[in-house]
Design brief:
It is built from 9 helices and 16 strands. It is of the alpha/beta class. The protein folds into 2 domains: about 1-120 and about 285-325, Quinone Oxidoreductase, Chain A, domain 1; about 135-265, NAD(P)-binding Rossmann-like Domain (Rossmann fold, 3-Layer(aba) Sandwich), CATH 3.40.50.720. The two termini are about 15 Å apart. It holds the Pfam family ADH_zinc_N.
């Protein structure tokens, strides 16, 4: 029998429960996937807490990699034995196997492992659309600021930014995380717990500010992120680790230098098949070639889901975290 992590009420990590479940046969436009590795993302905590409301009870997780074991009707392009990865709804990736709509799948290149895929599909596609789609005015030579630069998405985004010819300033909390961020492309480091971020950004940019800020933290960093922008810069609200972004004051954007704020979602950048193919192909090519390296720094069993969420929310992780199906 398959196993899956489920939750029956919103709350802390303790609401997660590992259960035996029955996985049926795939229906039209569906396949059954046996998971090899599963992504652990900060967004998972938003579903668990109820910040992203979903019907309860429900599964947990939106990203995994595995092998197709059964194919439903009307499925074109996938067969039993194919290696696949995915990110997106419905919830339920924290499981040993599950039925998935084929529209959510990506075919996994043979030179990318399942563990790497589970650690990079959501994070890598996020980095791709941040850098390639959210600021159409950004160009080689510009300076950007990436919050949580030693995290899973931060490490990928920093490497990708260097491929685009950008200068990268990253924020981190510790010396160890600073070393990791530097090794993956950050040109300058700001220790956000002991330094004034916008003040340091101005010092590092000759008083001008950065072209783009990628802010995965939210409530605690929003004001500093705005103040770090150059005239007509773009603040990309990528996540809310410290809580939701505050209501936007349009006048504040004007006073700050006619800056822009956007709160994008990955789903809206991979909804179009052509754009989805463009971003995924770019990601897979960079990873397969070694131009972008994926750091899997934490591995858990599904039985450790509660501890994994505690570690994630406590800031104890670096790079990407995954569950390994044994």
């Amino acid at each position: 029998m398959a196993r899956a992590v489920r939750f029956y009420q919103s709350g802390g990590p303790e609401v997660l429960q590992l259960e035996d479940v029955r996985v049926g046969e795939p229906g039209p436009d569906e396949v059954r996937v046996r998971h090899v590795a599963i992504g652990l993302n900060f967004a998972d905590t938003y579903f668990r807490q109820g910040y992203y409301p979903v019907p309860l009870p429900n599964g947990m997780g939106v990203e995994a990699s595995g092998v197709i074991e059964a194919v439903g009707s009307n499925v074109d392009g996938y067969t039993i034995g194919d290696r696949v990865t995915y990110t997106g709804s419905p919830l339920g990736a924290y499981s040993t196997e599950r039925v998935m709509p084929v529209g959510s799948l990506f075919r996994l290149p043979v030179d990318i492992t399942h563990e790497t895929a589970a650690a990079m599909t959501m994070r890598g596609l996020s980095a791709a659309y941040w850098l390639l789609k959210t600021n159409p005015w950004m160009k080689a030579g510009d300076t950007i600021l990436i919050h949580a630069a030693a995290g899973g998405v931060g490490l990928i985004a920093s490497q990708w930014a260097k491929l685009l010819g950008l200068r990268v300033i990253g924020t981190v909390s510790t010396e160890a995380k600073a070393d990791l961020a530097r090794a993956h492309g950050c040109d300058e480091i700001i220790f956000y717990r002991r330094e004034d971020v916008p003040e340091r950004v101005r010092a590092l940019t000759g008083g001008e500010g950065v072209t783009t800020v990628y802010d995965t933290v939210g409530k605690d960093t929003y004001e500093g992120s705005l103040k770090s922008l150059k005239r007509r810069g773009v603040l990309v609200g990528c996540g809310t680790a410290s809580g939701p972004f505050p209501p936007i004051d349009a006048l504040q954007l004007a006073i700050q230098g006619s800056v822009y704020f956007t709160r994008p979602a990955l789903a809206d950048f991979i909804a179009d098949p052509a754009e989805r193919a463009e971003l995924s192909q770019a990601l897979f090519d960079h990873v397969a070639s070694g131009r972008i390296k994926i750091n899997v720094n934490q591995r858990y069993d599904l039985e450790e889901a509660v501890q994994a969420h505690r570690d994630l929310e406590a800031g104890k992780t670096t790079g990407s975290s995954i569950f390994v199906v044994r």
